[in-house]
């Protein structure tokens, strides 16, 4: 009787401390395309396009470090506006993205898996600008009349904050070969020249822009076992 009680107690303790195992790949590669929006000196913000690719390093099944390259366009203004520009840019970003699954307990239900794969992130971006289509803007101050607007070909830094979700495809054996990625990124810049306009003297406004894209993430490389407490 004592032996049966001991075995039962041991089984209960073992069961309570058992952790779910998730096997995942350490790397991923993504191709994406989407739209950009500029928040700059020119009004009537126009949507434009962005395309790119990214390499991911996955410290867990939910979080990842991303190195991404974007090629896109930022533009705003119409012919009747005082300001109008078009910036054909390329950028290179490093971001760390923290998945909610690292804080939530593992659960096999579909809705919990979706929540686990939501992430937020931040990092740094080097953006190479090519402002080639710009409308000069004249303004007058007590010091005289000046013309604003120039073709700008240079590099600046911006700081992206972002959020997204990976809709993962799972095989019958629980493997995840790829995922559909929905991603939103907002870029804060400390520069006011991304649109070719630096503004009148005393202007402290800086240029911001955002990107929204849909991508396909393919997972590859060595696998690792991730242990999680089940719910």
UniProtKB/TrEMBL annotation:
<keyword id="KW-0732">Signal</keyword>
<protein>
    <recommendedName>
        <fullName>Outer membrane protein beta-barrel domain-containing protein</fullName>
    </recommendedName>
</protein>
<feature type="signal peptide">
    <location>
        <begin position="1"/>
        <end position="20"/>
    </location>
</feature>
